[in-house]
Amino acid sequence: MMEASKVLALIRRLRHDFGNHLQVIGGFTELGYTGEVQDYIADLVREMGEERILFELNDPELSLFLLQQKLYAQEVGVMLNYQVV
C-alpha cells in the first residue's frame, strides 16, 4: 500500500497543477482570448479522459503508481504512453 505521505504529495501536486490551469484560463479570459480558453479547456478534458483509464483499473495501488509516474514524466518533459489491455 502506498504511504500516506506519498498520497498527500500526489494530491498536493494535483492541486498545484489545477491552480496553474485556473491561472492560465483566467489570464486568457482577462485578455479576451476566448478561442484559446476553449482550446485549453478541450485539451484538459482530453487529458482527463486519458487519465480516467488509470482510475478504472482494478488495482488501486497500480493506479496511484501509474498516475505518479505520469506526473513525474510530465515534470521532466517525457511523454509517457501506456496501454491497458
Task: Kindly describe this structure.
It is a single chain. The protein has 85 residues and is mostly helical. The chain has helices at residues 4-30, 34-55, 60-75. The chain is globular.
Helix/strand/pairing category: mainly alpha
Radius of gyration: 15 Å
Segments where pLDDT lies below 50 for 5+ residues?
Answer: none
Mean pLDDT across every amino acid position = 91
Strand content: under 5%
> Major sheet: size, sense and barrel closure?
none
Please give the number of β-strands.
0
Task: Give short descriptive properties of this protein.
85 residues; 76% helix; mainly alpha; globular
Summarize the helices and strands and which ones pair or pack:
Layout: H1 4-30, H2 34-55, H3 60-75
Helix pairs in contact: 1-2
Characterize this entry briefly.
With 85 residues, the protein is an all-alpha fold.
